[in-house]
Design goal:
Helix content is about 75%, strand content about 0%. By secondary structure, the protein is mainly alpha-helical.
Length: about 180
């Protein structure tokens, strides 16, 4: 689904319905993998309802997808935005399992410099275990497997290069 640059102007907004309309637009764009436009819609919805945990959750997911497909130069900024949004969703609704697991996945898959890391994931896994022991046990197993994978300082760079292998040719001069 291609969305024109004028997507915001094309979406009719009814008085008193602004936030929910932007949320709906954001979800539609997210499902169409238009993460940048989805993030814009969620930001607009949050302007009307800044304490809406669901909006922060979807905004964080949008930024996380943007970080995954971004260049090595812009990914850190998107990752930090994702972390802040996901942490805000959890702060508003601290017992929401979906929000907690999404934040756990972010921490587990992100390096320390972007606000992630195994230590943060471990603390969150303990918190989830207190709410749901069976889910906590599964997260502890993922943590153990991830700890082996993260050995060495270049793990995130290796993962990023594998994800963006098509762009590596642009970074490495051809001989």
């Amino acid at each position: 689904m291609m969305v024109s640059a004028g997507w915001a102007a094309a979406a009719p907004i009814v008085a008193g319905d602004t936030g929910s309309r932007w949320e709906s637009t954001g979800r539609t764009l997210f499902l169409a993998c238009e993460f940048k436009d989805a993030a814009r819609a969620f930001v607009r919805a949050l302007a009307d309802d800044p304490e809406n945990a669901e909006l922060h959750y979807w905004l964080g997911r949008s930024y996380a997808h943007m970080a995954d497909s971004a260049s090595l130069f812009t990914a850190p900024r998107q990752a930090r935005k994702a972390r802040r949004s996901l942490e805000r969703a959890v702060a508003i609704e601290p017992r929401n399992q979906e929000y907690l697991r999404e934040l756990f996945d972010f921490y587990l898959d992100s390096p320390d410099w972007s606000g992630g890391g195994l230590d943060r994931a471990e603390v969150l896994a303990e918190r989830i275990s207190a709410l749901d022991p069976s889910a906590g046990a599964a997260l502890q197993m993922r943590l153990a497997a991830s700890a082996k994978e993260h050995q060495g300082p270049g793990w995130f760079l290796q993962r990023s290069i594998l994800r963006t292998s098509g762009a590596v040719g642009e970074l490495v001069p051809h001989r």
